[in-house]
Amino acid sequence: MIRLIAAFLGVVLTALxxxxxxxxxxEQDGCHWCAVWNEEIGxxxxxxxxGRAAPLRRIDLHRPVPEDLKIGTRPSYTPTFILxxxxxxxxxxxxYPGEHFFWPMIAEMIARANxxxxxxxxxx
Length: 124
Hints:
Layout: H1 2-15, E1 21-27, H2 32-40, H3 49-53, E2 56-60, E3 80-85, E4 88-94, H4 99-113, H5 119-122
Parallel strand pairs: 1-2
Antiparallel strand pairs: 1-3, 3-4
């Protein structure tokens, strides 16, 4: 019976789709702005609407880009935040502009990826 339940759970868990949006953080050892982001944003990001809409995944600048990610040009700067939509780069933010700019920029990127018109564009 336990094997049957485990087999069923395995099928259910593997059948779940991956999130449509994912935020990739490209970082490297010794990156000052990565450390600032980790202190200011890192602990709360997964608890926010943005973090739930686009879960964070970290990759190292000096390692190969994982095969499941289709990005445009290889990042040169850290941190670089790449918003992935269905495994393909949709938008990117190079550098960390501070928490007061980071949140609205990421929210706008996510809104565009979801087909919404960002508030900033509505005010033009």
